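help with this:

***
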Amino acid sequence: MTETPPTLRLWFMDWFGWMLDHDSLKDALCRTPFKEGRLPGLSATVPLPFQLPCNPSLEKRISLPRPFPEMELRELASNHVVFFIPQTGTYLRSSPTGPNSIDLWAPEPKEWEKFFPMTMEMLRGLSLFLRSDLINLQDDAGNALPAPTLQQGFVLQFGDRTLPLFLNTTTLIQIGQIMPGAIAKIALTWDTDAQPVHFTVSRETPTQSEIV
């Protein structure tokens, strides 16, 4: 009996904070705004251990017949990836002009071609991060962080401070694992050359379950 090789399931955020998705009416790639607690209709499985470059297997949540072109997932920078199309020598591109602004014809990888790969745990952590009614963050002096907003470039904006998500993948996973009513210590890395800063995070108990 042949064992199935282990895989990792990933979802992908574009440069503008939208998610790579699937339009089931057109059976085509699309992009949708990130929404707390919602899984996009498109994901990919990659072999474990996750090493780049690799060939992702794109999967539609609603199975439809149109095949995806062969793609190669390449690392562009730390926790930034691009989708290379070997047949055409071009790249997948997500433009900021609407939900259907996905094409496969970018000649080189720049900002619009970058994607941030996220696991289920990271998506859950980001969903909680954006819910100031569920998550409270305080530094060691007792100062609370303001409610964040998701900005382009894979960053969260806390007032006048920006937090790169791609430098805090482990922290996203940790926040996603905090149970309602629990308190934990996390470390946030604000800049590539900066030391992590420790915060206490507490998760409120919601009146109804909204983050899955």
In short: The mean pLDDT is 93.
